[in-house]
Amino acid sequence: MARKTATKGEDEKKEVDIDEITKKVAEELDIDMDDPELHKAASKIQASFRGHKVRKDVPKEGEN
Q1: Does residue 43 contact residue 49 with C-beta atoms inside 8 Å?
Q2: Which CA distances in Å does 32 have to 4, 21, 27, 38?
Q3: Which helix (H) or strand (E) holds 60?
Q4: Using CA atoms, how far apart are residues 14 and 62, in angstroms rounded to an integer?
């Protein structure tokens, strides 16, 4: 129980705004976040991951 409360306090300290990090990385790498090709690539990656996740979660034939 003590370990759970100790790690909970640490997690709250480590919270960071994801948008801030994304903007900093984009500036460092000189990425145009409004590029349509970037959005197309991100959508493809997301679709692939979602398909992988569904295939992983669906029980295979013969499994119970």
Answers
A1: no
A2: 41, 15, 9, 8
A3: none
A4: 44
Per-residue pLDDT at 48 = 97
What are 2-50's pLDDT values in tens digits? 666 666 555 554 567 888 888 888 888 888 888 999 999 999 999 999 9
Say what the alpha-carbon torsion angle 52, 54, 55, 57 is, to the nearest 10 degrees.
Answer: 120
Residue 42's φ and ψ, nearest 5 degrees, are: -65, -40
Q: Which two tokens stand for residue 30?
A: 């000189």
Residue tagged 């909970």 (tokens): 8
pLDDT band (50, 70, 90) for residue 57 = confident
Helix (H, G, I), strand (E, B) or coil at 55: helix
